[in-house]
């Protein structure tokens, strides 16, 4: 044993002698020249049948994906042998048509590329969700029997876990509501819903915890167009207030005291950005270089005004082409507008580890809702927020599979984007329709996944919290990472932490990406790199929970590892 220790110490001091201590970003040899042009990514077909429509998707920190649809669509593509109550499902005509003899939720395991059925007890149609700080998915609302339900999915890694329904209920019906995890420990705000002009908090502290009126939801409601303010976009600003965008308007809201702090200018142009208008939105990457104090939101696409009614008459109006960006911190607020390469709605906006934004799925014409859209948008767009105006968008490789209402997309730890869903019909319909029920699961692999970049790709990323504390890192605290790089790091090595969203209906609830401060970075001749990173300063910047940590070397990301930011 002693002999072994001596040996280790000797090796360690040798390695130390070989270290060149360097600043985190002062390296030579950029990969930058590869990141532009001609590289449009690749599509992969993962499964022909997920069993259920991916109306909702969320990535767990066990590297599985919870997928679910509504429960009342009748037969899905995943037949069960038994119902929840244990009763057998037979081949009888009644049983074959019985919704309870089919799965409406599955868990997809990324590494084995397989799904297993999960059991939902009440209808989750057009519901919402968010992860708690311990990695459990809290899911709220839905339709009918499910509209006031609170459900939990606690990931377990052994393929045994399932949905659990809480004894406590929501105060109001939540169908098409949005959720955001808040800085307060394990508090989630649930905002809006169809004919619900209030917000409330979950988990419930007591059984009679109620809801609060929000007149902004009345003001933005467009009755003749199906609302156009459903699934409002929520973004937590780093000052601890909540940005709420609905239809064309937005506010900064202090949810603790029910006070509207700011009313922002209306986004220019006609049309609507929220369901059934169905544009999408992100909070652009938050950056340590300004201490996370500059917060900018972006809203893209949506439906033309009158699109919902027109779709009911079989006229499919061209969707919106514009995007707006606005800084919501400070005191000067203006929407800076720019155009996407084409008109687009029903799309998902995802922040990639590089800090670029991917716009994927959806259609060019129509509105959200059943059978309301036409002309699938088959080409994803990539948006680089740091390029010059006019040079920010690029058009990526086309898929052959239309992803109409309601589809979804999420970022995976390996850098790919999982794409599923699409079923603009009341039940699963596979023939004689323009857009059949889509049960195929795909992955889009952005250009940075290409083999030619493997020599630039940081590998074997490991996180070390130190102090024998294996559960996470506290706000403002340091933590260490190590990884291996075959060649010298590029000019820019960045470290991003990404909150995995709950995605449905073109909204990615809770999604945010932080560019973390690197305090020290050393690379041994062996290629092993050690870096000391600083956790975000507060839960306003990053609510407590699991984040995907990625090292990005000159635009080429590593596989992400889960890092947990903890309350004091
Ligand atoms: C999906 O089905 C097609 C056609 O039957 C088949 O060629 C393909 O290999 C299948 N792909 C997967 C991933 O199962
Ligand atoms: C996380 O917290 C929730 C709510 O308190 C609880 O139901 C769940 O079991 C916890 N999950 C884990 C993994 O501890
Ligand atoms: C939409 O689809 C229709 C028929 O499928 C086609 O004629 C039309 O050119 C398409 N429009 C656009 C904008 O792609
Ligand atoms: C990376 O990790 C794998 C699996 O643990 C190991 O086999 C491999 O040698 C490691 N590579 C380097 C360069 O450290
Ligand atoms: C992180 O690495 C530094 C040296 O680079 C070391 O001094 C420190 O103890 C490490 N901290 C942890 C938490 O491992």
Automatic annotation (TrEMBL):
Keyword annotations from UniProtKB, A to Z: Signal
Record domain Glyoxal oxidase N-terminal: where: 55-448
InterPro entries membership: Gal_Oxase/kelch_b-propeller, Gal_Oxidase_central_sf, Glyoxal_oxidase_N, GO-like_E_set, Ig-like_fold, Ig_E-set
Pfam families in UniProt: Glyoxal_oxid_N (PF07250), GO-like_E_set (PF09118)
Domain of life: Eukaryota
Keyword Signal part of the UniProt annotation: yes
All copies of domain Galactose oxidase-like Early set, residue ranges: 473-564
Signal sequence annotation: 1-30
Name the record gives this protein: Aldehyde oxidase GLOX-like
Organism annotation: Prunus avium
